[in-house]
Structure formats: C-alpha cells, structure tokens
Amino acid sequence: MPPSTLPLSLSAVRSVGSIMPADMLLRIFDGRDVEGGRPADYGAIGTRSVEDEAERLWHELRGAWWVLRRTLPGREEHGQLPADPTRSALRGWVEPLFVALGFGRLAGLRISGIPADDDPGRVFPMTHRYQRLLITVAPWDTELDARGRDGSASPQSQMQECLNRTEAHLWGLVTNGRELRLLRDSTSLAGSAYLSVDLEEIFEGELVHEFIGLWRLFHASRFEVLDGEPPSTCLMERWRDEALRSGVQALDALRQNVEEALAILGTGFLRHPDNHHLRQPAKVGELHTALLRLVFRILFLAVVEERDLLHPPHTDPRTLGRYADYFSFARLRRVADRGGGGGHHRDLHTTLRIVLDALGLEDGRPELGLVGLGGLFTRTEEDRCLDGASLSNQALLRAVRRLSRVRDPGTRRWRPVSFRTLSSRELGAIYESLLEDLPEYRPADHSFHLVHRAGNARKMTGSYYTPSSLISRLLDTTLEPVLDEAVKRGANQAANYPELDEADTIAESLLSVTVCDPACGSGHFLVAAGQRIAKRVAAVREGTPEPGEEAYRRALHTVVARCLYGVDINPMALDVAKMSLWLEGMAPGRPLDLLAPHLKCGNALIGATPAQLRGGIPDAAFTPVEGDDRKAAAALGRANSLERAGQAALFDTEPDAVKVDNTTYAEGLHGLYAIEVGSLRDVREQEQVYRVWRRSADYRRAVHIADAWCATFLWEKVEGAPQPVTDETFRRLFDPEDAAETEATHTEIRRLRDRYRFFHWHLEFPDIFPVCDDLGGGSNGAPGWQGGFDCVLSNPPWDKLDFEDKKYFSVVQPSLAGIAGLARREAIAQWQRDFPEEAERYRSARRQVKSTLHFAGRSKGFPSCAKGLTVKGVNTLQVDHLFVELFTGLIKPEGRIGAIVPTSIATGAGAQELFATLTRDRSIASLYDFENLKQLFPGVHSSYRFSLLTLHGSQSPVPVADYAFFLHEPAHLDDGRRNFELTADEISLLSPNTGSLPLFGSRRDADLTLSVYRRFPVLWEEGRRDGNPWAVRFKNLFNMTDDSGLFRTRADLEGEGWQLRGNAFEREGSRMSPLYEAKMVHHFDHRWNGFTPAGAARQPERSEKADSEYAPLPRYWVPEDDGAREGLDTRLSGVGWDREWLYGWRDISRSNDERTAIPALLPRAAVGHTFPLMFVQRSPRLVAALCAVQSSLVFDFVARQKINGAHMSLMTWKQLPVPTPEQFEPHLDFLVPRVLELVYTTHDMAPLARDLGCTGPPFPWDEERRAELRAKLDAYCFHLYGLDRQDTEYVLETFQTAKGGLKNNEIARFGTYRTKELVMEAFDRAGIGPMRTQGVEHSRN
C-alpha cells in the first residue's frame, strides 16, 4: 500500500497499509467520538483537559528538541546525518519524549532482546518493552527502513518480523528520535503497514495540533493490558477493531454515494441542452456503460493524485503548482466542499476532460507534468457516447461532493473520503456492487436512475467484498505452499549452477508462478495473491523477511505484469479488476501495463478443450432443450450418429485430421513479452503486437472451430434455423480450403459466440496450456492439454444454473414478480400474448439458461457434476460446483486450488459425485465450514454455510485432509479442538453411497462417529452385492402435492354420508383411510399430534393418550381401495407389503432440533411423503429391534453429524449405521419386549403385537414407565454401539442448543435433565453392561 499523508493538514503523519483506517486516525487526533478519550483516561490531573495536558508537555519537549539540535545539527553535505557517539539524542530527547507519552524512564524498560516463538535461538534486538508493547530505539543517524552497515535488517524489518513471530506482542514502536513509527503484527498482510510521525517536522514546524494528536495516539495508556489478559484487549487494538467494523458500513455508504454520483452525472448529461443525441431511451445502456467508465477514471485519478503517483519524480515544482491550482481533482474537491451551485457553465468539466484525455495520450501533457498512462484512460468505443457531450459545473460539483465524503453511521457525521488509503479491493467492491444495477431513463424529466434487481441484496450490501481475513486464510493453504516450492526450485537451481546469483534465481522462480481467478470479478483474490508474491520476491532480493516499502513496490509492479491471470463474463467487472491491479502495481511516471493478455472477458464455463475437439460432435449435443422442436432435434441426432459411425461420410476424416496444436500461438506471444516497457508508446507497441496475434488467420480459424463445437449444443433446433454443424462438417472445418458450411451457419456460430461468450482456455492462454498434436496422448488429464496454472484462487458465483421468473420480471415487469405460483404462470402467458417483442426476449433469456445447463450436463466437460443430475430430486446444477470441477482441469498436476464455495459442495445431493471424486483422488487438503452468523458476508442470510476449500493437483495427493465445521470467524481455526483429520477411506466408510461429508462440530464428534461406523455397517450400502442385509425397500406413499386430488376433508366426507369410526371413515363397506403426516408421529408414538376440524395441529391430552381406543384425527383421508391404481391397498400391494402396520421416519428434521432421527411404527394407513416408509423383508421382531436402535440417542447423535439442512433424506438414512440382522439376534430378547410395551398402547396396533407374539390387551400409557423403558433402550444402545461411560455422558450433553434442545427443555419442564439421569442410571446398572460385543466390528472388504 502506498504511503498516505492524512487530510486536514496532518502533514507530518503518514499511514501506510491498513494498520489503522484514516477516518479513525482523524477521530483520535480530533479527540471526539472515541473510547478512552477523557482526561482521566490519559492520567491528566485535576481539571486539565487533554489538550491542556498535551500542550503543557509540548512546551517542555520543544525546549528539549532545540537543545538537541544545537548538539546535533541538520544533515551535512550529501545529505548525511551527523553521528551521535555520546547518545545525546537518547538521553536528552528520546527519553523525555517517552516520559511525556506516559511510558516512564526508558532505562526501566530495557530488555536484551525477544526470542521468536518458533525458534528460541532467533533473538530480535528489541531494546525496550512496556507491558506487551515492544520498543526499538535506533541511533539518531539510522534510517528506520535502511539496512545496517553490517548488512543486518533494518530496525523496522526486525520489529515487524518480531511481532509476526511472537504471539504475546501485537504492537511495536520504532524510533530514531527524528521519526516515530507504530507497527502491528501483520502476518495476515502482504505489504508494509505502519503509521509514521515525522517528529522533526512537528517540532521544527511548530505543529502544535499534530503533537496533540500524536500524544493522544501514542500515549502509554493506549497499549496497557490488564494482568492475564491477551494483548488484543489494549485500547489501540479496540480502536482498530471498531474502525474495521465501521469500515464495512462506510464502504456501503461510499457505494451508495457512488451510485448517487452516477445518477447525478447521468441526469446532468441528459438535461444539458447541447446533448440532444443522448436523450433517446435506446441509448440508456450505452450511457450507463460510459458513465461507469467515467467514474472509474475520476476515482482512479483521485487515488493516484493523493498518493503522489500521478507525476514522475523530479517534476518541476512550477508545473506541479500549475496542475494543482487549475487542473487537479483536489481543486475540484475544494470547490465542491465550499458549496454553491456551480452554475450552468461547463469549464470545470472541460478542465477535467483535458486531464482525463491527456492520460490516454502517448505524450500526455508535459505542461501539466502528466505522462500518458493508457489503460482505462485509453479511449474505446464504449466511451464514444459521451464524446463532445457537455456537463454543467453544477452537476459535476454535486457528483464530486457525493464521491468525496461519506456519512459515518456511528458518529452520524460527514467525514471526507481518504482516497490515499482507499484500497484497490475496496474500490473493486464498490463497483462490483453496482454492476448488476440496471439503468433507467425517464423522458418526462430527462433523468437517469439505477434500478436494483430483486433478490440482489448481496450486491447492494457489499457482500462481494470478500473479507481479507478469509482471503488470507485461503492464501495460507494454497498460495504459500506453491511459493515455498518455487523458493526451493530456485535455491536448487542456484546450487546446481554456481554462476547464478541465488537471490536473483529464487526471485525469478517466484516470478514464474502463475495464479488465476476464473471468476475474478473486481480482482480481490488477484490483488491479494499479487501482494503475497511481491512480498516474497522483495524479501528474497533484500535478504530479510520484512522488506522495505520501495523494494515491495518494485516487486509488485513486476508481479502484476507477469504472474496474475483472470477471467470474468462481465466486461465492466473485468475493467474494475484491471483498475485494481493497476492501482496496486502503479509506479510514478510509468504507464499502466498491458493486462489484456492476462485478464480476459468470457464465460469460463463454456468452451471447448482439445480432447473435446478431437472427439468431434457428440450425439448428446442435439438433445432438445426448452424451445426446440423435438422431431427436428431427433433427426439431427440420428444424422450425427450415422456420420460418427462413418456410414454417411463423404470424405476421409481420420482422427489425425483434427489438429488442435497451439504451440505456434504460444510462440506468437513471445514477441509481446520481449518488449521492454518504459513509456506509453511501448505499451502501444505491445497492444499492436497483441492485436496482430489475435487477428491472424490461423488463430481466428482455430477459435472459430472451437466456437462451432460449443455452438452445436446451444443451437436452436427449429424449423427455419440455419443448419447446425454436425460431426462430418465439423471435421471438415479443419481444412482451410474446404467450405464445409454455409455463411448462415457461420453467422449463427458467431452470434452464439457473442451471446454466450465462449472461452477456450488453450487458445486464450496457449503459453499456460500447451497442446502438441505430435505428443498424441501426452497430455495430463481429461482436457487434453499440458501445463496449467500453479494456483487457482476464486470465490465463484453462489448461484443455481436456473432461470427465476421472479428475478427476471422484477426489472422487466415488476407487477408480475409480485404474483406467485400458478397465478404468475398464467399472468406471464397473458403478458407474452400482449407483448410479443418482450416475450421473445423473455424466451431467449430462459433458453440461454436452459441451454447453458444442457451444455454443462451433456458436453462431458463436467462429468462429475453431470452425474449429479441423475440423483433423484436434483434437476439443476450449482454454478459454484461447476467452477470447482473446472478448476481441477486448470492447474498443473502439482498445483493448488483455493475456493470459497457453499458447504453444499461436500454435503449436497447434486455435488455427491464431484465430492466423491475429489475424495477418491486424494485432492482435498482442507475444508473449513463457516456459518454466516457474524455476517462475514453482510448480504447473505446468517444461517448460510460456506467453506474455504483447498485442493491439490494429481501429482501431490493428500493422504489425510483437514476439516473444521460450524466456524463463525476465521480466528476459530486457531482453536485446535475444532479441527480434525479424515482420510479418503474414512469418508468412504461414513458415506459409502455418496461420498458426502458429515458435519462434525469437533474432533471428538468425528472420533466417536468413526468408532460407530467401524463397529456397524450402514443400513444399505449400494455398491455391494450384499449391501442390503435388511432386504429393505423405500416408498413415499402419497405426495402431499401431486396426490392432493385424492384427499378428502372431514366436511367433504360427512356431507357425502360417510361415518367416522375411530379415525377412519366408512360407508357401505368402503373405507377412507386416515392420511398420517410426519408431524403426527414421534418415537414409539403414532398419536403424537392430531388436527382439529379447522385443520389446526392439536396435541392430545394425557387422558386421551390413556384411552386405548383413542386415535387422533388427520387433516385428510384417502380411499383404501378405489378400484383403480390410486388407493392405499393398490399402492401397498405394489411394494409387496401385506402386514397391517407400517414403519418409517420423519423427513423434516434439523440437527439442532430436540431430536433429529425420528422413526415410528404406526397402523396400516395412508401416509404423506414427509414420512418415507421402510418395507423391511425381515421378521417383525427384527423390525422392532431396528426401531429401538434407530430411535436411540446414540443413533440420533450420529444422524446429527450427517444431516445438512431441514431434511432427513433417503440418501442420509441409508448411510446411517445399524447392526445387521445377524448381529441383532443376541439382543432381541432385551429389545423387543420393551419396544412392544412402548408401541402397543392402542388397539389399532394389535396386528403388530400379534406379529411380535403378544395376544393380550394394549399396555397402559404411563409417562413415568415409558421414560424408564426408553432410558433402558438408550443405555442398551450406547453399550451396543461401543461407547463407554464418559462418551455416553458427552453424547447426552450434545442434545442442547442456545435456545433449547432436549437438555434445556427438560430442565425447564422437570427442573432437571431427566433423560440423562435415567440413561446413566440404566447404563451403570450391573444387569445391563458392559455388553459383550467384541464380535460386532465389521469389515467393508
């Protein structure tokens, strides 16, 4: 981060990096609205104010300063400072300064050094320590960031390294008497970060106000920590935390201001009388794009101007003055701050245009000291809309005011925006949040507005601003190991070739690292990665872990030009990414680097690979999608199939006729990289070379062939459409002399290319993905190319590949968005009839999404995700899942992947094949799951789960992966109790059918669950011939939506003469069965709930439960047998079930409910789909024992680790561990009688009782007795599952939440955790345990 002098005349203070936001420093210096700002907090005596106390000390120190300067005068010739052999500066100046700041005498704070935590032999030469604050006092003639005469690291570097490597210290002060610097532990940062105060300027310039601010900021009380408290509790750290929290709010406020500035500028241009050409509704999109680019430029200018990066070094002061007085953004800001309308003149806009245009010219404006920058200042077709347009001073100044200040939500005061400290990531976040806004022109008053899409709250609240703490953690696990390997390679190379300089060789190895973000947005990850690489390069070159600022800046400039790659589908987002990188790597007087070869616009998910091109056009390309003519699509598919079989080929099309070699294209880029850049003219030469490269006939033909392959999947297969490319004509496209297709076909290919933004990785980055036809099968992996990126980092879109009518119509026709369900579909149909042109755009938008899904599912580019579409209930794909599968093909075999994605990638049904593949391949290095409770992403619901996922390439498999779940903030990863390791075999043991991941809250949860799975197999392991030992079948009997036409209410039936008998209706020998819903049953209780005649849920009274004839009433009834296929009898006979009772479980459940796994036995009746049924082809006694185990607390504990969301899905239920029937046999005599007593409490359960060998009356309903029986079953199952007493107590304690849970609910009801007491008493009873289950351990082999 470049240095920044704070605004408001604090000329002696510089803030570098993100150590403390500028607005917080201003508040501290001002002494307002900050904690700890009272006189007593500074130890001021009596009634003196802070200002009075500081001013008193100012006078004392000023005298000491001038005494010192008589002893040590200013710099000698050649800028050398006089030596201080007698250390008069320390005794006569530094010590009094620290006494005045409240630290006391330095002699009492002296130390001999601080050892590193990770290497006690490494001792940092700190000279003093005040509680947890480290202090280094350097000699007077030593520069704080300069190496020592003996080659040792600079005082600042040593302090920074010490803070980074000692946990007990967060803050440090470094001074030489002339300058005072404040540093903080920066392990999560890349570049330098410190606050510097020029003491020389303050005391020689008589800057009293700045000294008062210095005293407020650096007083000892700001660093004091109570005994036993961590260093993070000091006031300085609390100030910083508050500033960071308010910074997110300030960022949202600035985003809002930028949006308002866009609207003001748009309206200003539209209303100016000279701009008739803009006042056309059709032009609003062009105007919006031009306005965004204009504001990009204004903000970029403001930032580089305040950072002193705009003018070359040694620019003539008179030239600088001319620019500052008449042309600078700072002047515009001053004029705007003074208020006033500005009038209808346009001179201010004209002046601004002179500057912006000059920065895009090769020669710049020498009379203003401006050199050509190029980059975003280069005029493009998108800017043409505003060429020659006029803007009044009034509109421009209003917009500048919006851009230059924000309202602090905490203090409710306006504060100036510090463009110097506004990071490129913050600017990127602001603009990325605006890219989804839609422009609107209102002709009535010629006004311009931005309209928010419905459901776009994420973008409106700054949630695109990925927190630095998350990015830092991900870089630690992905990029840092890659950089470590680069250092090793460089060191080995230098060792093998003694003539090479080791530092240069290692630096060059680091600069050869390539990092890509395939969904880069505004470049957050690329900026962070560039900073990490640059720090490593600078550290190697300087020989210190904490390099100086200048070395870091030089390295960063090189890294931006060489190491970073990005792709995004939105061209404006890509412009923002370039702006972010330009700001990071900019050097005074140098042009903006050409980034087009590395940052490209396109749809990263839709492209052709060499392997796909070699394979020709697959038949699946012609599968019809929404809007296609099925007959036409089928005919094309048949024709293509014949061509592929060779039956209709007219020409020889051997496989080697398909040439996809790209080596010549890679060679063509070498000339581009060989141009040495010193001026914008050199950049223009690079641009010309790049244009020629992209426009070469061979390259354009290669791209067009790949476009044709993609277009086939997206082709509209209807009558009248151009003839699509089939396999034969596709292969003929490789022959430049063969006119294989009509011009209409080629035109359609280009249209689809532009609409879908095809992106072919091996053609866009041929130097990264080399393809050589001569190597044949020498590629690495399915894509068919070699090489790849060293590291892929991304936070891809968290969206479904699905078209949502509500979002679409929220902008196009908001009245339709507000309608729901069938009514909306009917209204949309009518709207299409009324507005045929708009309807065509609607159908086109729907088709684009459906076709993209078709491509993803059928192109074989995403085989694992495509297989997810075959899972029952999965009808779409997650975009983030597709990106992760894409990433695996983009890295080198030894590369790394880091992604922030929803946790559903490890737990969801649609991702099960993808995650299983990653697990089998040993690709997963770590997965850290977060709940968004701390609003790390402000626009996302607090319950949403996302993960930091780290993957390895194929040549570096990970034997054991690291996991953590239920994290709320990155710091939780430092708690070792949350992390646990799992091997691929263990995941396969836990989820043999799907490979999905359980959600363990702690290492102990993982260990206990694994011990259970090692003991017993899952209910049904689908991949094994003997994997269904229970011979179980599953069925949803009645769907509550699809079968609702069969449902009858009580009023319906009674009106038709039916008579209620129990809870069934009868009439003339026919019977209407009650429809049980999941909410009506619970453990060992099919009478848990009923319904009133009005349809409200009703829990039976205890007296009703005691009545063995009582049966709760449902909401609906269905025919037992209607003589057709719809009745209950028919449906049960269809699964071969002839018993008079049923067994199933509740589908709706959550891991934080009082209970999660809730099976139940119930009478033969109709059952809704939220209570899936199990038809077990084993003896009733075994079914009863199975019910006992699946109702137990230990089984529930395991189920809680596996459930994600609000459903106990069939996928999950099958993969929960239960003994086999054979393993159950020794335990039936204990389990079955107790289950019978719990279940057989009504006459309608008599059939089950008879099947269990009981012919007596129902057992009485006795709450106390039932609690004891259930406790005995639970205790027995704890023993059965192999848990000891300590583990059993632990499991019982997990059944609680902050808002309730079993434990807290029972304490509220009974005054004690009754279940635990009863279970532990039964567990300890000699008659129960320990059980002999040594032979239960199972093997999956």
Automatic annotation (TrEMBL):
Residues 563-805 form the Type II methyltransferase M.TaqI-like domain. Its EC number is 2.1.1.72. GO terms for biological process: DNA modification; methylation. Pfam families: Eco57I. SUPFAM superfamilies: S-adenosyl-L-methionine-dependent methyltransferases. It catalyses: a 2'-deoxyadenosine in DNA + S-adenosyl-L-methionine = an N(6)-methyl-2'-deoxyadenosine in DNA + S-adenosyl-L-homocysteine + H(+). One of its GO terms (molecular function) is site-specific DNA-methyltransferase (adenine-specific) activity. Keywords: Methyltransferase, S-adenosyl-L-methionine, Transferase. The keyword Chaperone does not apply. InterPro entries: MethylTrfase_TaqI-like_dom, N4_N6_ade-DNA_methylase, SAM-dependent_MTases_sf. The keyword Methyltransferase applies. This is site-specific DNA-methyltransferase (adenine-specific). The lineage of its organism: Bacteria, Bacillati, Actinomycetota, Actinomycetes, Streptosporangiales.
